[in-house]
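Structure tokens please, single chain.
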Amino acid sequence: MPTQYPHIHPYKMVSNTQPKDVDERRTGVLSVGWDTSPVAAEDERKVVDILEGIPGYHRLDASEMERLAQMADEMGMTLRQVTGLRSGLLRQQAMSNHQKAVDLAPRLSKEYDGSASVMDLALAFDLPPGTVMRMVLRGRGWTKDRVRVVLNKKPQSLNSRDSTEWKLARENDMITAGNDAARSRVGAGFEQDVAEHFDRLGVTYRTQEELFEEQVLEFGRPMRTPDILFDEPVLINGQEIAWVDAKAFYGANIWSNRKSFQKQTNRYHPTWGQGALLFKHSFCDDLQINGAVLLDSSPMDDSYSRKGVA
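Here you go.
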């Protein structure tokens, strides 16, 4: 039997049996049709080949964006999907190279002190500039916490050269030195879009914030907090869905995404059963996550996002 957390949710916890056929389900369950527009895997692979030939972790300039827009149109993708795919690939590359960066910290710090710039070192070792700056400071003996606090909260405490180099790193690194606050605002806006869509459908649910508060009171800490947890399961395209997690980006079929999405789904599925991952900019049709149905925002009214949030 799945792990059970009493009082996390009002409806009965699921069993580990297979879902019943639709005709056998109890009456009164809301059934929703949900059209999606996934990207063909073949088209995504072609775009990946092109994106992997673009060096650096920088934000693209106007001419680069224009070229990507043309490529997106030729591949039947949107510019948002292509730029989202690039972000995912760069984030995956940064993850793959993290241990290499840690091992190189003493060397990076030595070469930096010998007048090499962060940008020179990033290019030479194929690392994100933000990661290079962190490893330079780690190479001086700084702890991970000290590096995080100084760079994120007290950059004014850096010396003149380090301050200039960190500024350049941030300007040329959209992955490890990017604007997390802006990404959070986009994510929050899409979560509100999703909630409002289910409001219009007449679905009752609990939000992540409500689950967080309830579980802290019950268990002393949050246990399982998807963005949306339905008060009763909803049939979406004939499949019973208990929870929804909103993703304000394109769902690329790359290993880092598969690992992250599966890990998240594995936290929710034993308690509530099958859920849905809902991507704002759709997803690759080859992407598969056990225990989760993939949806996109095709049927939704994105008026909230159009108000400047995304």
